[in-house]
Amino acid sequence: MKATKPLKLAVLFSGSGSNMQALIEACQAPEYPARIITTITNNPGAGGIQRTKEFGIPCHVVNHRDYKTRIDFEQALLEVLESSGADLICLAGFMRILSPYFFARWKGRIINIHPSILPRHGGEGMYGEHVHASVLRAGDKESGVTVHHVTAECDAGPIIHQRFVRVLSNDTVKSLSKRVLAEEHIAYVEAVAMLGELDENKNSLHDMGMSKHTLSHASNDVDPQELEQATFMWNWFTRMIKYNVVGIVVLLLILLVLFV
Ligand code: GRF
Predict the structure, then answer these.
(1) Cα-atom radius of gyration of the chain, to the nearest Å?
(2) Residue 152, Cβ neighbours under 10 Å: how many?
(3) Statement: the pTM of the whole predicted model exceeds 0.90
(4) Nearest to residue 199, comparing CAs of 211, 186, 187?
(5) Pocket of ligand 1 contains residue 181 by CB under 6 Å
């Protein structure tokens, strides 16, 4: 699988950065179809910063606390990302929720790793130990890892790759998270390799319903405020529908009885 033009990665992290290190190590192999060109953290105290130093990988600290608004913070992130020339953003334990504005700018070119078999144990509030606690509470016999495309809906983007981990009867949150993390390191490397190989072969990208367009820069002329407002309205509308679906059905039935 010799890559003539490796995929250029920007890895975003907030904590320990062990998944980032797995990618850094994989990218050292000449035949691996990706290279890390930059890393960014929002957390000046992140353990992962030391890892980037050890491997001589550029690391930018863009501390969200230094910015008044989320949009200002994201503009600073975008400046680093766009000047880096990255093709793909790999979120690796990046603990900031990104706005629809950000997604519009990098549409189809952001991936994430989640420590469960999505769609199980995903969504808002499902991160770190919460995920593993939820798996144990549910009595699942299997857990695992999902690498997925990132969309505006939390943990709901198209799945790229999954690996499974058996849940043991005596598992604790700690023991399960340890085994899942080891699988994450393999899964992320495999998933990026798949995308790197697909990116070289445009036909394959089309076959998977992810046209080459998904790996090229989106238009930059999006008004962040307008997009934020539109997304807020859309989220509000979809939540209304989601939580009131029973109410709407009952209302429709009443209207039917009254007027038909
Ligand atoms: C991982 O469990 C990953 O699935 C989640 O955040 C954690 C990051 O761990 N998104 P690390 O910083 O890569 O060690």
Answers:
(1) 20
(2) 16
(3) no
(4) 211
(5) yes
